[in-house]
Amino acid sequence: MDVLINVFVALHIIGIASLLGGFLTQMKAMGAGAARFVPAMLHGALTMLVTGVALVGLNEADDHHVNNIKIGVKLLLLVVILALVYVKRDEEKADKGAFAAVGGLTLANIFIATLWT
Ligand code: HEM
User: Fold this and answer.
1) What's the pLDDT tens digit per position in 42-79?
2) Rounded to the nearest whole angstrom, what is the distance from the C-alpha of residue 33 to the centroid of ligand 1?
3) pLDDT digits over 9-40, tens only?
4) Taking phi first (over 0 means left), then psi (-120 to 50 degrees means alpha), and beta for anything else, what does residue 107 get?
5) Quick one: 85 exposed, middle or buried, by C-beta within 10 A (0-12, 13-18, 19+)?
6) Which residue among 55, 73, 116 has the greatest number of ligand 1 atoms within 8 angstroms of its CB, and so is best to mutate?
7) Nearest CA owner, ligand 1 atom 12
8) Ligand 1 contacts CB of residue 12 (under 6 A)
9) Ligand 1 pocket, 82 CB below 6 A?
């Protein structure tokens, strides 16, 4: 079971790479107000949701402690990220505030995951 959990942690990290990487490629354009939500960001956010839920289930099944408040906060932030990316995925130019919010919330979730012990 530990191997399976670690495989899902790896997939979870691939999801972060896609979501945050997509954001980082658009940072210069964001400064000029021309950033867009690239497909990698939507796919990364969906990957985070699927692998995150699977990690909760696998950890519970293996009797590992899961911090439900921490997971709840991460889920809430991801729902906001996913909603923004999904709704605005076809816009040629994303609103600067919404785009910056997705990057900020993604970073917040990374620090919540690693610092909230
Ligand atoms: C943008 C959104 C997210 C980011 C950036 C993120 C980031 C991370 C990172 C860096 C880790 C590995 C570090 C660690 O083991 O503590 C991790 C683990 C984990 N994540 Fe996420 N995550 C996100 C969303 C979610 C969601 C939505 C869920 C659940 C619904 C979730 C559930 C978990 C679980 C269960 C673990 C295993 C370790 C633990 O108990 O904290 N994550 N996440």
Assistant:
1) 999 999 999 999 999 999 999 999 999 999 999 999 99
2) 31
3) 999 999 999 999 999 999 999 999 999 999 99
4) alpha
5) buried
6) 55
7) 113
8) yes
9) no
Give a three-class secondary structure readout of the chain. Answer: CHHHHHHHHHHHHHHHHHHHHHHHHCHHHHHCCCCCCCHHHHHHHHHHHHHHHHHHHHHHHCCCCCCHHHHHHHHHHHHHHHHHHHHCCCCCCCCHHHHHHHHHHHHHHHHHHHHCC
Statement: residue 85 has pLDDT above 90: yes
Give the pTM. 0.95
Q: Are the CB atoms for 16 and 110 separated by under 8 Å?
A: yes
